[in-house]
Amino acid sequence: MIRHSEIQVLIEQLNKGSEQAFDRLYKHFSPRVFSFALSLSKNRAEAEETVQEVFLKIWAKRYELSPSGSFESYLFTMSRNTILNNIRKMDYHRIFLEYKQYSSELNPASDQELNCKELEDVYKKAVEKLSPRKKEIFVLNQTHDLSYPEIAQKLGISIKTVRNQMDAASTEIKHFISRLGITGMLILSLFIK
């Protein structure tokens, strides 16, 4: 069992790139992340994949971790977001297959079915239309999985400002994409958390 003070020391070492500190954190927390992921996904393979994905992200962000923050809270927030993203991706494939089936029934000869890349391109265009500040906040939350408090701290703004900017960004993106009808609904379900 690792005490809180030891976790802080390990995070400080991890900030310096220590593989030994990473290994200790992995050995201590990976069984708990696995249990958490398994309780949500109900699938051992997906839970194991979640553990690997989460700890790869921890290693990638090792220089940004705060020794004074709650590593456990950060870890489980990241785990939850990873699981939700994976569920969203699975839903995407199901929705996309249903959409393909629906569109082929309406027009079997249609060459205008959207592929994954086209859907992502539309989403990226919607994000690009945001003001620079809204875009920065939106990307930090949606792409980098930072929480509102983490974004507020990183940018030196209030959590309320982050929340307002995220609400405005989501509204603008949804408005841009909603004009696409069924395709817009598909994009919204895939890309916005």
Automatic annotation (TrEMBL):
Residues 25-89 form the RNA polymerase sigma-70 region domain. Pfam families: Sigma70_r2, Sigma70_r4_2. GO terms for molecular function: DNA binding; sigma factor activity. GO terms for biological process: DNA-templated transcription initiation. Keywords: Sigma factor, Transcription, Transcription regulation. InterPro entries: RNA_pol_sigma-70-like, RNA_pol_sigma-70_dom, RNA_pol_sigma70_bacteroid, RNA_pol_sigma70_r2, RNA_pol_sigma70_r4_t2, RNA_pol_sigma_r2, RNA_pol_sigma_r3/r4-like, WH-like_DNA-bd_sf. Residues 125-166 form the RNA polymerase sigma factor 70 region 4 type domain. Belongs to the sigma-70 factor family. ECF subfamily. This is RNA polymerase sigma-70 factor, ECF subfamily. It comes from Mariniphaga anaerophila.
